[in-house]
Write a structure and sequence with these properties.
Order of helices and strands: HHHHHEEEEHHHHHHH
CATH architecture: Orthogonal Bundle
Helix content: over 70%
CATH class: Mainly Alpha
Shape: globular
Structural class: mainly alpha
CATH topology: ABC transporter involved in vitamin B12 uptake, BtuC
Number of strands: 4
Largest sheet: 2 strands, antiparallel
Radius of gyration: 20 Å
């Protein structure tokens, strides 16, 4: 009982700060989770290579900020806005392109042959490992046949230039709210709103909902299944690209080949928690998971946050396998 009392007291003392931290991490988890939930809603497939789509976006950010825009120190004003927007477009385009290639090379051949679901899982794991170790070899010292691979990655973490200085915008209940944390939450809300409108009010969105409900009936009504699936992977990749950029800007995490594993697993947990296949559920699950992790820090310590997330996954699968909002591709 003393431990519980001490835990509750610690959480109460740090409630504002940990809520801030949880909202930040939860927003990033939610953006990654949207990719999982979209693909599952359409194909009933867990795309375990989605974490590497996220990983690729961190290297795209590294290239854009360090090489393309030549950032060596924090920017401000219009220059900062243009650099972030430009880098966001590059990250989204890169991750979206990788996601589409994954669909084309790893999943479509299996789908056309009517392969069992286990084959999709094996293909996803294989594609994930391929992308990880491809980036390990991109250190400027390895060759593919007669072509030297570009020096993009390597086994060592690559620091990302700090493009945005941390500034406290205001204080809430004694907790400093910085510009970086506000940026993450606002981008996550904006992307959820855009995706929600896309799914519910556009031609492609109606196609995605139709395929998720009954692919055969949708095909009979003239829906191009292949095009819908490509768009689904593309949209999921774009979300992961934005999450990758925000992840390294806010957390200052260096880009390295294994960076997508933990955020990817946690985003999958968030998708399951909210109801995998449900867009708003993915957002809700991401925010809840971020808050649970944050509130666990005063009680258990920061080293136990990943354990807490996986315990949440086990508990949800045991008692609420369809998640909080059920499973379907909808707003």
């Amino acid at each position: 009982m003393d431990l519980i009392t001490e835990c509750v007291t610690s959480v109460g003392d740090q409630f504002a700060a940990q809520t801030r931290n949880g909202m930040t991490l939860g927003s990033i988890y939610a953006m990654i989770a949207l990719g999982y939930t979209l693909v599952y809603g359409v194909l009933q497939l867990i795309n375990f290579a989605h974490s590497e789509v996220f990983m690729v976006s961190t290297f795209a950010a590294l290239y854009a900020l360090g090489t393309l825009f030549g950032v060596t120190e924090p920017q401000a004003g219009l220059a900062l806005i243009l650099i972030i927007l430009g880098t966001l477009v590059i990250c989204a385009a890169t991750s979206g392109g990788v996601a589409v290639l994954l669909e084309r090379l790893a999943y479509r051949p299996l789908r056309r042959r009517g392969a069992p679901r286990l084959s999709y899982l094996i293909s996803a794991i294989g594609a994930s490992l391929f992308l990880q170790y491809l980036f390990v070899l991109m250190d400027g010292q390895h060759y593919l046949l007669f072509f030297k691979l570009p020096a993009i990655a390597g086994a060592a973490p690559r620091p990302v230039p700090e493009v945005m200085a941390t500034q406290t915008l205001f204080t809430a209940f004694g907790s400093a709210i910085t510009n970086k944390r506000i940026l993450v939450v606002l981008v996550a809300i904006a992307m959820l709103f855009i995706l929600d409108r896309f799914i519910n009010q556009t031609h492609f969105g109606r196609g995605i909902r139709a395929v998720s409900q009954d692919a055969e009936a949708a095909a009979m009504m003239g829906v191009d299944i292949d095009r819908v699936i490509v768009v689904t992977f593309l949209v999921g990749g774009v979300m992961a690209g934005a999450a990758g950029l925000l992840y390294i800007i806010v957390l200052g995490a260096p880009a390295f080949w294994f960076i997508g594993f933990i955020p990817g697993i946690k985003a999958f947990t968030a998708a399951v928690l909210g109801g995998i296949g449900n867009i708003r559920g993915a957002m809700l699950g991401g925010l809840l998971l971020g808050l649970v992790e944050a509130y666990s820090v005063p009680c258990l310590g920061a080293q136990w946050t990943s354990v807490t997330a996986f315990i949440v996954l086990v508990v949800v699968l045991m008692f609420r396998p369809t998640g909080l909002l059920g499973e379907r591709v909808s707003g």
